[in-house]
Amino acid sequence: MNFCPYCGAPLVLQIPEGDDRPRYRCSACGRVHYENPKVVVGCIPLWEDKILLCRRNIEPQKGLWTLPAGYLENGETVKEGAIRETLEESGAVVNSLHTYLLLDIVHICQIYLMFLGQLESPNFHPTHESSEVALFAEKDVPWDAVAFRAIEKTLRCYFQDRAEGRFPFRNRQIHRSSHDASYAKYDTDPPGRR
Length: 194
Prior knowledge:
The chain has one domain: Alpha-Beta Complex (Nucleoside Triphosphate Pyrophosphohydrolase), CATH 3.90.79.10. Strand 5 and strand 6 form a beta hairpin. It is 15% helix and 34% strand. The strands form 2 sheets. Strands 4, 5, 6, 7, 8, 9, 10 and 11 form an 8-stranded mixed sheet that branches. The chain has a 3-stranded antiparallel sheet with strand order 1-2-3, with no helix packed on it. It is an alpha+beta fold.
């Protein structure tokens, strides 16, 4: 951010009085402009013993597989956002959503909130955002072609919980990786930790 959206004057980075961290502040009108984490909402769409995945048709990670997810929009609840993203990316309608996993990705200022949801029917199709949409059994998930570490972690948690027959709400963190600055593939959590 370079200029104040209210008056157009240049912004300066400084710690406002009474605050504890640098913020963008307008050099003319004095308004403080806060930058906060982006909220990503998504869904694990379920049909019988399979999950719905989408092959990305847009960057980043075009051509790789993901769960339907995207940025929460103003004026919608997190559940509404997850339903919308699923419809936009797969043409599928989900219901019976319940919160499942919260992922903190501090180094890129994102929070993922993932839901479990049931497909209303096995009707889905490619969209502008997805070149292919398909149901996968656990053994068929294209692990080497999963687009984002957050999605890989979500899928691994889901399949482990399904094997245990319980789906508690989880809070996990994705750490910065020295292997891949785009956070697309590698996770730095110790082995065996979810």
